[in-house]
Amino acid sequence: MTTLVPILGDQLSRNIASLAGCEKASTTILMMELWDEATYVRHHKQKLVLVFSAMRHFAAALEDDGWSVDYIRLDDDGNTGSFTGEVKRAISRHQAERIRVVEAGEWRVAEMMSAWKETFQIRVDILPDDRFLCTKEEFYTWAQSRDRLLMENFYREMRRRTGLLMDGGEPEGGQWNYDKENRAGPDMFMAPPPVPGFPPDKVTREVVALVERRFGDHFGSLDRFRWPVTAKQAAKALDKFIAERLPEFGTYQDAMAHGQDDLFHALLSTSINLGLLDPLEVCRRAERAYRERKVPLNAAEGFIRQIIGWREYIRGMYWFEMPELREANALNAQRPLPEFYWTGETDMRCLADCIRSTRENAHAHHIQRLMVLGNFALITGVHPQELQDWFLVVYADAYEWVELPNVSGMALWADQGRLASKPYAASGNYINRMSDYCSGCRYDVGKKTGDDACPFNSLYWHFLVRHRKLFEGNMRINRVYGTWDKMDQSKREAYLESAETFLANLPPATSGRARN
Ligand code: FAD
Ligand code: DLZ
Ligand code: SF4
C-alpha cells in the first residue's frame, strides 16, 4: 500500500509530523512547484527564489536520507498548477491508497485540503502542525475563556508551559518582561556586525533564472539575495546571531537607522516560517546563551518573547479570527494604497528608506513595518485589504497566517482592537526619537503644519479627530483628546487643513499591483 505524503513549500522540516512513523519503502513524498501558489499574490522575486530553492534543496536532502520524492517542477509537462490537481495526478501515478499531510498554514490552502477526502475517495489524514508550540485547540480554549486576548497573558502561559527563562514557578530575574529596557534609539555606540549572507549556489542560480523568466515583472530586486535555503545554512545564521547580535538585540530592538537594514535583528523569520529552523530550539539557544552569561536577560527575554509570545499568539489569533479577519475594517478605511509603496518615490525619508530596504532585501524590520509603513497607512486610512495584499507580496517571510493579524490587527486596528489594545498611531516625534531619519529629511519634524512640516504630525491629529467617537472611551489613548481640546482653535484648524491638503495630493497606486 503506497502512502502519499504531500509536503508543502513551508513544511521543510525533517521532523515534519506527516513523515513520523512512515516506512520509507511504502511512502512517496510529493513536492510541487505551483503556478497558483506563486501567483495568488504577485510575490517579491526573492520570496519565489527562496521558496523554490529551499524546496529543491529539501527534496535532495530527503532523497539522500533514502526517501522516494516525486518532485514536480514549475515547468514540468502536465503540471496543473494547483495542490489539488497535482495530488490527484500523483495518486494515480503511484496508485496511492492513503494521504498523510500536515495541515496547511493558510486558510485558503486548508479549505482546499479539507475537500480532498471527498474528491479523491481515499483515506486522508490531516495532522496538526506540531512545529507550533500551542495547538489551535489550546489557543481556542485560552481565548474563549477571556474577555481581553492580551498577548502578555498568553506569553506568560507559554513561558510556564515551555519552562523557558523560568526560575521554578517564577520568571527569571523576577520580571516577565524587560521591554522598558528595550527602547533605545540609534546611537554612537551602535555597531551592528554584518548578517551572514549565503550567495546563490547552482540550485539557487537555476531558480533565479526561472523566476526572472516567468515572474520578471514581479516587485523587487534579486541582486542582494542572501537568505538561507537549507537547514545547515539556517543553523549557521542562528549561531552567528546568538554569538554576535543577540547581546544588543534587546536594547536596539525598536531602533531605526537610515541605510542600516538589519541592525541587531535575527533575520531568522524566513527560516523559521519555512521550517528550516525549529522555533523551540531557537529559543533554547537564546536561553542557553543567557545562562552561560553571554547575553543579558533583557536581550534573551525580548527575543524569546517574540517567538513563543508574539509568533504563537499571532498564529492562534489568525485561526481564531478567520475568515472574518480578512474582511475586517473597523475604521471604515477606504483609501487606495499610495503609489509610493511600490516605487519608494517620496520625500518622506523614513518611508523611502523602508521601501528601499523592502525592494532590495524583501525585508524590513518590525518597527519599520509597524511604526512607519503601518502607521502611515493607519493614519491616512488605507483600506485594510490593499495594505494586507501589499505586505503579503513584499516580504520574504510573508504567509497569510502571520501577515494578516499583524497588518489587520496590529498595524491597522481593523479588528476593532481585539489584537492591539490601542491603535499604533504616532506622529513624527516617535519616528524622530527612534531613528536618524528626520535629520536628513526634506520635511521638518519639529514643524506641525504647513508645506514643509512633517506630514505625520498633522495626519496623526487628523486620524484621532476622525475617530474620536471610537477612541475617546479607550483608556490607553483618551488622554490625547484633552491635549487636542486645549489647543487654540486656529492651531487645530491648521492641523486639519494641512492634513487635508496632504491627503488630497496623495496619488493612488498605478504602477504596481498585488494581484494579477
Ligand atoms: P526579529 O526582530 O529578530 O524577531 C525574532 C523573531 O520573532 C522573528 O524571526 C519572528 O519569528 C518572531 N516575531 C517577532 N515579531 C513577530 C510578530 N509580530 N509576529 C510573528 N512573529 C514575530 N513576520 C513574519 O514572519 N511574516 C510576516 O508576513 C510579517 N508581517 C508583519 C507585518 C506587520 C505590519 C508587522 C508589524 C509585523 C510583521 N511581522 C511578520 C513580524 C516581524 O516584523 C517579523 O517577524 C520580523 O521583522 C522578522 O525579522 P527578524 O527575523 O529579524 O525578527
Ligand atoms: C509561498 C509558496 C510559493 C510561492 N510557492 C509554493 C509552491 O510552489 N509549492 C508549495 O508547495 N508551496 C508554495 N508556497 C507555500 C504555500 O503557499 C504554503 O504552503 C501556504 O501558504 C501555506 O498554507
Ligand atoms: Fe519621516 Fe517626518 Fe521624519 Fe521626514 S520628518 S523622516 S517624514 S518622520
From TrEMBL:
InterPro entries: Crypto/Photolyase_FAD-like_sf (IPR036134), PhrB-like (IPR007357), Rossmann-like_a/b/a_fold (IPR014729), UV-DNA_repair_photolyase (IPR052551). It comes from the Bacteria. Pfam families: DPRP. SUPFAM superfamilies: Cryptochrome/photolyase FAD-binding domain (SSF48173). This is Cryptochrome/photolyase family protein. It comes from Novosphingobium rhizovicinum. The lineage of its organism: Bacteria, Pseudomonadati, Pseudomonadota, Alphaproteobacteria, Sphingomonadales.
